[in-house]
From TrEMBL:
The species this protein was found in: Escallonia herrerae
Name of this chain's protein: Transposase-associated domain-containing protein
Ranges of residues in domain Transposase-associated: 47-120
Organism lineage string: Eukaryota, Viridiplantae, Streptophyta, Embryophyta, Tracheophyta
Record InterPro entries: Transpos_assoc
């Protein structure tokens, strides 16, 4: 889980605001009713599906679809994301619609446990 905090008038980098950078990526926003503090939570998704050996298992397929949805929050305006399948190995950008298929057909890169290329903080 990654926490983001902001107070009134706090900005990110190069003039971009909290709403520009962080808000599209968050899963839950909590606002303090007594002050201008806002807390945003980005919850990392379950990764247990990666260890399912039968990739046609509905849980594995759902995990692949959920991964693409999770990764899409990191780059909402992009049409392509890095593909973490065993064949592409996060070295090739693919259309989002093709990434889940690659994961199911070729398998998910098992060493990719911290999804730093797909929106997860490197600190988690």
């Amino acid at each position: 889980m990654v926490l983001y905090f902001r107070g009134e008038g706090v900005t990110a980098f190069q003039g971009a605001t909290f709403d520009d950078i962080v808000k599209p990526q968050i899963d839950l926003m909590v606002n303090c009713k007594w002050c201008s503090l806002h807390v945003a939570l980005k919850i990392n998704m379950d990764k247990s599906w990666i260890n399912i050996r039968i990739r046609l298992d509905p849980l594995y397929e759902k995990g692949a679809d959920d991964f693409v949805e999770f990764a899409s929050k990191d780059r909402p305006n992009a049409t392509e994301i890095l593909c973490p399948c065993m064949k592409c190995r996060n070295m090739k950008f693919m259309k989002k619609v093709d990434v889940a298929e690659h994961i199911v057909v070729d398998g998910f890169l098992s060493s990719y446990t911290h999804w730093i290329f797909h929106g997860e903080s490197s600190l988690t």
